[in-house]
Amino acid sequence: MSELKKQTEFKLYKRDSVFFDQNTAPVNIDYAREVNDVAILPLGAIEQHGPHCPNGLDSFNAICLAKKVAEKSGATVLPCPMYGGHPYMHMGMPATIALNYETNMALIHDIIAGASNVGYNKFILLVAHGQDSSFIPAVHKLGMEGYFTVASTWYDFLGDNKDVLSDYMWHADEAETSMALSLYGDLVHMDLAIDGGGTTLVDGKWKKAPGEMSHPFQFYHFDGTFALMEKDDLDYGVIGNPTKASKEKGDALVEKVVEGYSAFIKDLLEKHPVGVNPLGFRNPLGFNGFNGGAYPTFDKDHDAKGRPLYYNK
Ligand SMILES: [Zn+2]
């Protein structure tokens, strides 16, 4: 044991990797408990991305961005499950392998709950795919259990209002292809890129696109059944125009996204230092948020009203 501790101390500030699965357990545990307790879970999908981009694009983007954020911020990257949940309109597209909503929610929940046992107290879902249908409910279930979890898509976080891109983000388009060109250009075939389609069921002015800064009087694209089923609507599965993509645009997107996430993590750790669960409690019995006070209320970390002592300073 003393040998193990010695090795751990030696490794503490020089992990083998920002990737959880590439370090040993003692290094990950000591690092989470003593250096940085922010864990990033990259979430993408296995999905057709037109004739020019790989099926793993969303997961690759999430993993590559998470790696850069972790290098800059000191956070740890949990293994990406690769498959993801999907909005209704993706269903039936060949080469898209979708998890159903319950599966994806359970997957996200179980990964976060399991990783908390390492010592992580702050979780960031870095999502690169429109699976709001399952990651949002997962975050709320986790919240009721005492897991501080932030769900974010890189494109919402960016909020690019045509500063870098000429169009808002859609699918296998200028935005996604530019990011792929920046991060793993060898898997992108720009000679095969074609201008895509996509039929909206309400006028575009009523609908906030992914990656668009919000305006008054707009629904979010993923808050309604605003699009035709892609299998009925599209020949190539491309929505938007990837011929406008470039590595330079991708580099600019990556830089802004990495900078934003890293600043958020720094701020989070200043407000809630290593070892502090921002929610102040953890319910080890699992989800039971609606049964009227089943959370621990009288332990040493809470006052008589069940409020975390942490907040009463
Ligand atoms: Zn995608």
Mean pLDDT: 88
Share in helix: 25-40%
Count of DSSP H/I helices: 9
Cofactors and ligands: zinc ion
According to DSSP, the number of beta strands is 8
CATH architecture: 3-Layer(aba) Sandwich
Return the structural class.
alpha/beta
| CATH homolog superfamily | Creatininase
CATH classification, class level: Alpha Beta
- Tell me, what's the shape? globular
Please compute the radius of gyration using only Cα atoms: 21 Å
Strand order of the largest sheet: 2-1-5-6
What does this structure look like?
With 313 residues, this protein is an alpha/beta fold. The chain has a single domain (36-271), classed as Creatininase (Rossmann fold). It contains 9 helices and 8 strands. Strands 2-1-5-6 form a 4-stranded parallel beta sheet. Strands 3-4 form a two-stranded parallel ribbon. Strands 7-8 form a two-stranded parallel sheet. α5 links the parallel β5 and β6 (148-153). α3 (57-73) packs across α7 and α3 crosses α9 (247-271). The chain starts with a helix and ends in a 42-residue tail after the last helix. The model is unreliable at 287-298 (pLDDT under 50). It binds zinc ion. Zinc ion (ZN) is lined by residues 49, 57-58, 129, 171, 176.
Give the SSE layout.
Layout: H1 2-11, H2 25-34, E1 38-43, H3 57-73, E2 76-77, E3 84-85, E4 98-99, H4 101-116, E5 122-127, H5 132-144, E6 148-153, H6 154-158, H7 174-184, E7 207-208, E8 219-220, H8 230-233, H9 247-271
Parallel strand pairs: 1-2, 1-5, 3-4, 5-6, 7-8
Zinc ion is lined by residues 49, 57-58, 129, 171, 176.
